Amino acid sequence: MSAVAVQEKNTTPWWLILVFGILQVVVGVYFLTQPLTTAKVFTWLIGWYWLVTGAYYLVSLIWDRRQWGWKLFSGIIGVAAGWFLVDADPIARVASFGFAIVLVLGIQGIIMGISGLIAAFQGGGLGAGIMGGISIVVGILLLGNMAAATLVLPWVIGIFAIVGGIFAIIMAFRLK
User: What is the model's pLDDT at position 2?
Assistant: First the structure.
């Protein structure tokens, strides 16, 4: 029996990846140059997305009762969070959303760090232990300095968006 290597062809057009990369760079530049305005618009758009998605989950219970508990929970949370982000004072909206992101990232860093340390002690190697330790430290720093972390969040998002956009642009030209 012979093994034949099957090469999957990328079905996404190269130009679509290019457009996505350019948009990502533009959004990143806006986050770096106009952080408050961009964060206000960003959180407002997320609010509308959550509001519409939450309403959809609730309305979909009329015709599809599968996993009704999760749909009800997701719908209520989506509508409540979306309503808050759409209706709240823009500064309060940005601050509370940033605070929530930093809180989740801090907790996630600690949990992932503990998992990395456990993996290291179970034969995962020194690298897993080092990364686990770094994740715990970053998580503690985020939780210990939530106000500062929330304030720099738009710039961090901007930098990641620009770097991701540049990589998408490079990938697009490689696919061309």
Answer: 53
